[in-house]
Every structure is written in C-alpha cells, then in structure tokens.
Amino acid sequence: MKYVIKKLLTTLITLFAVSALVFFSFSVIPGNPAVSRLGTEATPEKIEKLTHEMGLDRPLPERYGEWVLNILHGDFGKSYSYNQKVTSLLSEKIGTTLILSVIAIILTVAVAFPLGIYTARKSDSKLDVVLTSLNQLIMAIPSFFSGILITLLFGFVFKLFTPGAYVSYKVNFLRCVGYLFFPALAIALPKISMVVKLLKDTALKEANKDYVVTAYSRGNATRAVFYKHVLKNAMIPVITFLGMTFADIIAGSIIVEQVFSVPGLGRILLTSISGRDYPMVQAIILLLSVFVVISNLAVDFMYRAFDKRIRV
User: Fold this and answer.
1) C-alpha distances out from residue 205 to 15, 30, 235, 305, Å
2) Strand residue runs (E) in 73-210
3) Are 10 and 114 contained in the same domain?
4) Terminal Cα-to-Cα distance of the chain (whole angstroms)
5) What is the sign, positive or negative, of the torsion defined by CA atoms of 289, 290, 295, 296?
6) Pair (56, 111) in one structural domain
7) Region 159-174: what's the mean pLDDT?
8) Domain carrying residue 28
9) Bridge partners, residue 85, by sequence
10) What's the pLDDT score for residue 311?
11) Looking at the 3D structure of the chain, how many domains does it have?
12) Residue 78: helix, strand or coil by DSSP?
C-alpha cells in the first residue's frame, strides 16, 4: 500500500511540475498573441486593448494560479484563434488521436510479443535470420515514411481504404477504426521491431544465466524453463521500454495524422503553434504529458506482477 501511495504522490508532483513548465515556457516565448490575432489591423492602441482583454498584462503567478484552478474544473480557457472554449474544440480531436494511439498500442503488443518469443526460442534458425534482417529494415524506417508507403500500397494499389476519406467515430465507429488501422500500423511498425529485438536479446541473455542452468539440472522441460523463468525475467526491461513506447506512440500519432489526413490533435496543434494560440497549445501538451505520466505509473504497477522484489 505504501508503494502505491508513494507512486501516486510522485505522479501528482510530476503533473504539477509539468503544468508549471508548460505554462511558464510559453509565457517567455518572444511575441505577443494579440499581435498575431489582429494581423494586419494591429495598431498600438488595439494591441494594448486586446492584450488587456486577453489578460496577458497580468502577473504570471496570478495567471498561472487561475489557469490551474480552471483546469481542475475542466476548463482549459478560450482559444485565441477560434475564440471558443478549448475543451469544446478538442473534444472530438482527442477521441480520434486516442483511438489511433490505442490501435497502435494493441498492434505493437499483439505482434511484437509472439514474434519476440519466437525469435528468442528459434535463435539462429534460417527463418530467424530472415525475420531479424526484416526487423532491422523496418526499424530504420520512420513512421511518417511508413505511412506514405502504406498509403501507396494499401490505398492506391490494393484499394483497401480510400486515403483522406476519414469517417468520424461519432458517425460510424467501425469505419473509423477501419480507416485508423492503417495509420496505426505505420506508427506501430518501428515500435514492433524495437520490442522484438529487445525481447529477443534480453531473453537470450537471461537464458545463459546460472539460475536457468540450475532449472535444467532439476529436470525441467525446455519450454517450462523458458516461459516460467527466462521470459518472466526478460519481460522486466521490455515493460520499461513499452512504457516509453506508449508515450512515444501518442507523440508519433500527431505526425502520422498529417500523412493520412486524420483530423486529430496534430492538425490543430500545428495551426495553434503558428498562430500563437497558447491556450490551445498548452492544453494539448498538458494532455499529452498527463498520458505519458499515467503510462509510466501503469508501468510501475506492472513491475510488481513480474518482479516480486519490488513488493518487498
């Protein structure tokens, strides 16, 4: 129980530090959002008036305190560019990005683990040599380029989906998932390769340790030793990597969304950065940071299932 409480307190402190970093970092960036909003109509009088209306002339600590209190009530403020509540603008886009990320995570786990286990058990076989070579190639290709290749192959050659014909999950959930499968595949492919390589290398390293030799000397079958001892210990560094991978999938989805014309957080984030729409950018970065922190917290709890020493 103490372990859980400690981790939860650490998570809360981390989220508070992230919120402060997000807010103050954008406050020191050169440029005035009021000028960007006024555009060609900007005059000193109008800039001063709009700066006051937007609250940008108030002390930073006061603005930060109000911002945090509003976030605790589910209010991320009003967008400078769209003059609407940030929450309402992000409601559907967050859902789209999360669905895309979840599909990519499921693909990563569902494909990487069986392949990693197979290559570890069949090391140095002819098929393992082929899979390892293919793995290295896929690992070297960035997600956005994989997205271009997937669009060309599955979109234009095999016509399994229509590029750019995204359907909202609120309109048709199954069609939405069917379309998002392909950008999710582009995101997942390099992650799958990394997990497969890590799992194989870690399992082979564990297989040469003394406790495995002892398990064999007691008459245990090879399959039993691998799954009960080798794989369980090999999973510990893999779980650490998966925690970072899940966070990286969210960030990677923002880039791949542009390749497949998916109206998720990526498009509005790029638009908001160019337009100095700080409330929108701060909200998106904070949400992504929350997901990263929660992913790391989940990984810490998963450790307890694989390593009993943490419980002690």
Assistant:
1) 36, 51, 12, 21
2) none
3) no
4) 11
5) positive
6) no
7) 93
8) 2-72
9) 78
10) 55
11) 2
12) strand
